[in-house]
Amino acid sequence: MAIKVGMVSLGCSKNLVDSERMLYKLRSHGYQLVTEPGLADVAVVNTCGFIKSAKEEAIDTILELGKLKEEGTLKKIIITGCLVERYKEEAAEQFPEADAVIGIGNTKDIVDVLDHVLEGERYVCFAPKLDAELSGERVISTLPFFTYLKIAEGCSNCCTYCAIPMIRGKFRSVPMEDILKEARYLAENGVTELVVIAQDTAQYGKDLYGEQKLPELLSELCRIEGLRWIRTLYCYPERITDELLDVIAREDKLVKYLEIPIQHCNGDILKRMNRWGDTEKLEELFRHIREKVPGIILRTTLITGFPGETEEQFEELAEFVKRVRFDRLGCFAYSREEGTRAYDMPDQIDEETASHRADIIMEQQMLISCENNEKLMGAELTAVVEGFDRFGECWFGRTPLDAPDIDGKVFFTSETPLEIGEYVTIRITDTLDYDLIGEVISK
To answer: What does the record list as GO biological process (predicted)?
Structure first.
């Protein structure tokens, strides 16, 4: 019987793409893939090590799998990913339940790693992080009609709070021909929605071609038959160009949605973060984007409690959020990370204060979201069907206004059966905080 392998992919969507590439290699070599680690002979954990909560989740997951191994349910455990890459020696020593501990530069060799493990060897290896593969075939683990398209690896921005550059290495763009080849393959196999991602998506191509090539890449993706929605996440504000906005406005397949992580608005804090902008520059940027692309959905992320953040600077951020009225927003308390420049900065803010400030921002955003949703009452929107809610006895899905996993849903009734991945027209009849309620009016 084939050996059964289960994957636990933690953290961001970029990590998920790496996990899917490992799954493809394992399946191609005859291993049977299972969705539940408890049903597997071998569990592979692709960890996240970005912030404290992610590290805790990864550790808890490894320890839980260790218990399954003690009970005899699991035979072998392989751990890799950002946590392992960040804490190489510690990971090898502190997780004796792991039969293999490998860096991100070794994931392309996952089949060889598993072979070593099955022979009874404890395998520990850390290839150079720049050896991490930039492209490759994948097993799609999301809903079959959408997936993520990772167009670059690593980051060269060196924000003072962030460990990603030391974990993943410098920014490396995937050659455009490789991206387009992958996108065509995905479309030919039923994918209709692509979510374009990288650590700094708008920087795409700068290292390979000497200039930002995201507008050209998006234009080429729009020419691929079968794709219906293309969405772009993680564009840094200083790299938003008129050329990019013109492409988003012009191309029908590009949903009018852009995520621009700014982290704060106060100029002094942004300077200490090694980030671009201040309140005036950012407000002007968002005004300009809305003028260039009418009706665009703007999403951002913020950090509260960065070292030295005064009450006045936090209030400036809160007022900024009220004025700009982002359509989507995530706010997180600062996480003090070893090895980053911010770790040793003076005037560290206590976790309780940082979390309280984040809660205030999110409470403000909920009011804004509710008001925005109220304006959609009676509107007719396209939605993609994601599933059926047996508890609510209704279907659910997303409109172009919402990205997978991070934004809201629309719940709706239909007089006729629907299929996952089907696109329907919904009339909005009610709201639920961040979500919408509606009914299908046409298919």
So the answer is: tRNA methylthiolation
CA dihedral (133, 17, 226, 219) positive or negative: negative
- Cα-trace Rg, the chain: 22
Contact 95, 85 (CB under 8 A): no
Please give the class, per CATH, of domain 4-131.
Answer: alpha beta
- 162 is annotated as contributing to ligand binding: yes
Distance CA 107, CA 234 (A): 24
Contact 17, 81 (CB under 8 A): no
In this structure, which topology does domain 377-442 adopt according to CATH?
OB fold (Dihydrolipoamide Acetyltransferase, E2P) (2.40.50)
d(CA 270, CA 272): 5
- Rounded to 5 degrees, φ, ψ at 400 are -60, -15
pTM equals 0.95
At the fourth CATH level, the homologous superfamily of domain 146-374 is tm_1862 like domain (3.80.30.20)
Determine if residue 370 is labeled as part of a ligand binding site. no
155 is in an annotated binding site: yes
Q: Is 159 within any annotated ligand binding site?
A: yes
Residue 209 has a CB neighbour count (10 Å cut-off) of: 13
Residue 222 is labelled as binding a ligand: no
Parts of the chain belonging to CATH 3.40.50.12160: 4-131
- Bridge partners of 229, per DSSP, are 193
End-to-end Cα distance, the chain: 45
**C-alpha torsion sign, points 223, 228, 233, 237:** positive
